Amino acid sequence: MRRLVRETRWSVSDLILPMFVQEGLHNKEEIESMPGVFHYGLDEFRRAVGEVSKAGIPGILLFGVPEHKDDLCSTAYHEHGIVQEAVRAAKQENPELLVMTDVCLCQYNPTGHCGLVRDGIVLNDESLILLAKTAVSHAQAGADVVAPSDMMDGRVAAIRQALDVSEYQDVVLLSYAVKYASAFYGPFREAAHSAPSFGDRRSYQMDSANIREALREAASDIEEGADMLMVKPALAYLDVTRAVKESFDIPVATYNVSGEYSMVKAAASKGWIDERKIVEEMLTGFKRAGADFVFTYHALEAAYWDHN
Ligand code: PBG
Which residue from 84, 119, 138, 233 has the fewest beta carbons nearer than 10 Å? Predict the structure, then answer.
């Protein structure tokens, strides 16, 4: 009876797995604060893509950890950068897998900020050129979806325009439109080696108290050409996902971020919670709030629990 009258369902078709590829790594290394999540060298990454495909997960989101960082973030848009190589490897392994790439500069420059920095200031407009170059290089490698997470103003328009003039009109732009400055990203910064070396991200990421601003960010990104939107983090922002869903008619995703994952793993490892039930309840909550799909590090395990 409960199955028949259930109002919300999630399935493996709703899940995207974020993955970290590391340049120069030969094997894979588990990320300490995120048990079950790995830095992959390219060969291991190929193998993992096979596993993801077998589990029926529709897509992945790629983050790169480069060997070299410089002020101009040159490894972010290099033809043979780690993300570009990983996109090619994933497509070779499974051309049907949807390959999304995170577009940002924070892993690629020594300051750890999401844009170019001069004299301690993040330069919004000058960053746009590099972000657009990065997105085009991902498209060139074969990415289906580019997902800017930097939060510079105007980056959706800059990226869309650069893709279009480079003949990548069919590449989809998923904007991290509503990205809050959040302590829930803590473990990710260890994973991506991208913690800011000074200050914080509050000059470009949003204040967690604001929801009208979220709708303004979403509206301007749609105006600039975003095809899909993201709300991030997920758990503490379900009302924002609901509001975005009701206000706009393009797909909306939510990102169940690193800190949310680590909290579940830590408590489960102590036997304090039932991991599977907790994750299933969270996924149901994301869908009930209106998310069309979910970025989650739990994707591989959850794919096998899909029983709805
Ligand atoms: C980088 C980026 C971050 C995340 C995705 N892209 C970190 C940040 O903005 O500090 C967070 C992902 C997670 O915590 O799982 N711009």
Answer: 119
- Calculate how far, in angstroms, residue 6's C-alpha sits from the geometric centre of ligand 1: 33
Report pLDDT digits (tens) over 181-205.
999 999 998 888 888 888 999 989 9
Using CB atoms within 10 A of its CB, is residue 52 exposed (0-12), middle (13-18) or buried (19+)? buried
Q: Are 132 and 103 in contact (CB under 8 A)?
A: no
> What is the Cα–Cα distance from 193 to 196, expressed in whole angstroms?
9
Angle at the Cα of 58 from the Cα atoms of 266 and 15, rounded to 5 degrees: 35
Question: What angle (nearest 5°) sits at the alpha carbon of residue 184, between those of residues 87 and 257?
Answer: 35
Question: Which pair of tokens denotes residue 234?
Answer: 């997920």
Distance CA 120, CA 123 (A): 9
pLDDT per residue as tens digits for the range 225-278:
999 999 999 999 999 999 999 999 999 999 999 999 999 999 999 999 999 999
Closest ligand 1 atom, residue 258 Cα: 15
Q: Write down how long the chain is.
A: 308
Which superfamily is assigned to 12-307 in CATH?
Aldolase class I (3.20.20.70)
Active-site entry in 69, 179, 245, 265 = 179
> Which atom of ligand 1 approaches the CA of 102 most closely?
6
Ligand 1 centroid from CA 131, angstroms: 16
